[in-house]
Amino acid sequence: MPVVDGPDMSLSYSTAGEGEPVTLLHGFTLSGRSWREVIAKVPPGWMWVMPDVRGHGDTQIPRGAPITMDACTRDIERLWDHLGIERSHLVGYSMGGRLALHVAVSLPERTRSLLTIGAHAGLDESARAGRRQGDEALADRIEQFGIEPFVNYWEAQPLFAGLARRGRAFSEQLRAERLRGRPDGLAASLKGMGAGAMEPLWDQLDRISVPSTFVAGEEDTAFVAAAQRLAAAVPGARAVVVPRSGHAVQMQRPAVFARILADHLRRADGPAAAGTSTASLTSA
Known about the structure:
The protein is an alpha/beta fold and about 280 residues long. The protein has a single domain, classed as Rossmann fold. Helices cover about 40% and strands about 20% of the residues. The chain is built from 10 helices and 9 strands. The relative contact order is 0.15.
């Protein structure tokens, strides 16, 4: 895979297709490869840009280099410069969704539109300390016991229960992807850009003026509420709730999500982009 080098990183990424750029930011334990199934289901006309976020995939950083929202935002900006991209649509899942929000707030002039899946703009202060403590304890366990015990724990989280409906072959493929993770990278990611470490962005969301869609699976009730809160905070945004899906909508129901993504990108380029904030339920 190609890389773009910076002062403290060698960022691995891949691209596919031709057209207006869409940058896809993966979730915790995954990599840019995790988007391949979805983009194969979206009609042609887009250039997909799929980086491996710090701590994940084939991206390399020296020991002690920061794995934070700010550092990853600088990486995305450097990648866009490297590829000659002035503005990009942004799509992010879970951790990648929080990063997409951070990029959209930090680089509004380079953001063409925004779509997140299973994301929020930071925890309320009363919840942050406990979450940070839990993330740091989990990070310590990852470093102490290694990747396989952690993946066993991670796969058992109720958040991902619906993925089993995809069948054994998919589950084995996803597990293999997660087992490729590096314990030190995942641990540093939790400590530096986990939900507890992330500075909340709720009071900065009015900086986002591009077409925005916030997606959540109906079984992922906490993130349905987060999607609706995001849609209410971002001018002109909408929330889309996907039936029969949990946290990872794009993996659990890829064909449905591909239609949502294609519709979002069309809206971003058409008159509907100027619409008012709504919350909608897809019947797909």
